[in-house]
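ASSEMBLY PREDICTION REQUEST
Request ID: AP-0331
Submitted by: J.K., bench scientist
Number of chains: two
Total residues: 856
Priority: normal
Notes: Please return the full assembly, not individual chains.
Input sequences:
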Amino acid sequence: MSKSLKLYLGAAAGTVVVLGTAYAAANASVDYPEVAVTHQKSAPVAAADAPAPQDEADAPVRLAEAHQARTTASDASHITVPTTMPEVSTEAGRFGLGRAALPEEVAAWNHDIMPDGSNLPVGSGDVWTGDEVFAEHCASCHGDFAEGRDNWPKLAGGQGTLADKDPLKTVGSYWPYLSTTFDYIRRSMPFGNAQSLSDDDVYAITAYILYSNDLVDDDFVLSNETFMDVEMPNAEGFIVDDRETTEAHFWAEPCMENCKGSVEITMRASVLDVTPDEGEDTATSEETGPPVEEQAAAPQAEPVQQAAAEEAAPEAQAGASIDMALAAEGEGVFKKCKSCHQVGDGAKNRTGPMLNGVVGATIGQVEGFKYSNDMAALGEAGRSWTAEDLNAFLEKPKDFLKKTKMSFAGLRKEEDRLAVIEYLKTFQ
Amino acid sequence: MSHDFVKKSLTRRGVLKGAASGAGAAVLGAGAARAQGPDPLITEKQDWATGLGDGVDATPYGLPIKYEDDVVRRNVPWLTADPISSINFTPIHALDGTITPQGCAFERHHSGAIELKKEDYRLMINGLVDTPLVFSYADLERFPRENRVYFCECAANTGMEWAGAQLNGAQFTHGMIHNMEYTGIPLRTLLEEAGLAAAGDLKDKWVYVEGADASSNGRSIPMDKALDDVLVAFKANGEALRKEHGYPVRLVVPGWEGNMWVKWLRRIEVTEAAVESREETSKYTDTLADGTSRKWTWVMDAKSVVTSPSPQSPIRHGKGPLVITGLAWSGRGAITRVDVSKDGGKTWETARLAQEGQNKALTRFYLDTTWDGEDMLLQSRAMDETGYVQPTKHQLREVRGENSVYHNNCIQTWHVKPNGEAENVEVS
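STATUS: Completed
Returned structure:
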């Protein structure tokens, strides 16, 4: 049995930790012989649990030979090039580089919430508040009930499915610690507008996700004080990497001849046919074959842009009479769109295209955004975003265009739709 | 005109078509060329031999010539909800050697590739250290630095193949990998600069690392690994990191899953325990057949793949001399041997390593052989310095089931047909 196996077997939770140290010594001896010695002796950090390779039973023969071989090779190829490192010291501040981090700087960046709830901010949020906040900030991707839309993560359901053919891994069915949910929402969500939520909103959203997973009742209030009361169903569902024991038989002398009786093909990729076409390998590329760059500059592109300019002109004039009160209301409604769309100075494409000038513009023409084929086709046919079309699209996007990439469910109230369209007109 | 012709023939369909007809043509061999008369490419004066090429400043930063513009990263759109949080694949089928050019090295983002100037860059070290520190980019350039070559493989590489042959191309089955020469500072040096006395016994301590992007992508690394070979890197292949790989500074965690190689590295915290972040609980954990899941599966097991011939790189000549080539790597150390089978694993022959295997870096292998023009079931099998032998998919499934998603290092099979085309298949 190999050296590494012996190392791993005794290590349990610290499995790779031990291995890493063993390699530290081994690697160092290859690349920086002098330093390796120094580390072993003067650096208590590494020496603390670094097993002296020689003491590790019968193991290190092969490894040592391998390293010896490489040492020789690298020595030969670097005869004139010194590769030694300056000696590393454990003396803190040895280089005197950098500056002390201020407490408020550490506080601004250190958001970690540990599994035991330490570092949780003071605050609270209830399920019903969470329902509202979730609808506003999260549901466009994760669904009204955290059930997920399109390919976006499903956050609820799936309990009892982990041993199934297609397990559904959600906060309720899979995540072992609630701290992870709070931590992640607080630092990284909503997608495209991270760190915009108050701590209370994060508590509320977390409470709603728990409710959606049937883990708390509808009157539950999640706070820094109730946080550790929540039991996560899959908390005990994880084991530390055990490959070195359960897969020990992968360390074996490989067979070279007569390794199998017969060999049959049991599955072919072409049956599923899910491999993407290769860029230019479209129906047109071979027969009519203009290279990609030429297609982009093909004659029909120009008239489309001209049409866009012409169509936009009357709308821009209409923009002169924007109902500012209505636009102000629209700014509030637009919060539902903000996780995916940007407007204003420096607006960029996010999950959705940036929306400056969208009212009256040719459909599907924002540069650099990859639209669904159907949306792009509308624009290529010369159609533009009239107020009527926007109104219809925003009511039920998938009714307007079945294959749109926009996973937003829609704005049910006409007043909301008109307000948000008015708001968008202010970014012409 | 001739440019267009070459370009078209580089599309996949063109290649396959060429391969099919080429197989027949090549049977005639060199004698046929004589029979067809003198080659006009030789006997006629060519434009490039009479006119002038580009001046020196035509491309201040050069890109590959247009004839190679199919050698690019590609993604699989149906894998993820949005390209902002997604992955693409290195065109390993078209590369040779071991160093991956940055421009076609796979990308994985969780909140998109951000633009962070060196001037705006700050790196904080906090937690259980003597003095919490803040470094600027300029500070980092003043620490002693090292050059080391490592592979970076996403834990999900080959993850779509667990349940069967699915994607038809080495780029898609094995392209979540790259291999670069990094210039950086040992993480150990920075930790020692902040001082580790405050951490007490380092044996059970952790280092939590996070990025400056909205995802933060925090990961917990055991202290022994942090003090072993982890690098804080700011150059790759001699030049600045690309934006998509974490400019200006990323973490390099040799041999361990790519998700831990935090990009846009902004904070390093010494902690008492693993933070159990989203990326180390809900993701990057490996569910077994019984529904329990392995966590902390950091090491990338030894693995290899034949990159040519392969579905995107069919045999374009007929029978006769054939170079079979591919890549092998191991997160446990150096590759010591690669075997190749042409009959689906019944018999094996040992391939030639282009260079002796390097620690936790890609190794290129070649099998210089003669093709008889018959069907082949091509496989490769890697061995590393610990004696680990790359397993078959069947062997992996016996231990892990089909729901692990991550860490699929199985032996890959390409069915090469008499016309030179290859297909991803699974064999008994």
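REVIEWER COMMENTS: The first strand of chain B starts at residue 74 and ends at 75.
SIGN-OFF: pending second reviewer
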